[in-house]
């Protein structure tokens, strides 16, 4: 799977202005089964996405569709989950 870190480079007011289309984008990829989890960082300097193990070029295309590309940089890390607490066992091999 992938861990995607979003780091805002624009003021939070500009981020807020894009929140509705960003949430619609998130919903589209949750509905399609690509996204596993998402949330804001605390303090609010960006967000984090957990993404299924898909082709990296496809992931890059999906990220480029996010309205937040105008306000955030993306850092993508591939993680091969081999151990997990029982509650998260479904993440192994995802």
TrEMBL record:
Signal peptide: none annotated. It comes from the Bacteria. Residues 1-79 form the YCII-related domain. InterPro entries: Dimeric_a/b-barrel, YCII. PANTHER family: GSR2449 PROTEIN (PTHR37828), YCII-RELATED DOMAIN-CONTAINING PROTEIN (PTHR37828:SF1). Belongs to the YciI family. This is Uncharacterized conserved protein YciI, contains a putative active-site phosphohistidine.
């Amino acid at each position: 799977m992938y861990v995607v870190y979003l780091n805002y480079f624009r003021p939070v007011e500009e981020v807020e202005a894009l929140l509705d289309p960003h949430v619609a984008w998130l919903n589209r990829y949750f509905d399609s089964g690509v996204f596993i989890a998402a949330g804001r960082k605390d303090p609010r300097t960006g967000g984090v996405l957990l993404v299924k193990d898909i082709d990296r070029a496809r992931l890059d295309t999906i990220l480029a569709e996010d309205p937040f590309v105008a306000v955030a940089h993306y850092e993508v890390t591939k993680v091969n989950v081999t151990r997990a607490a029982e509650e998260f066992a479904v993440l192994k091999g995802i």
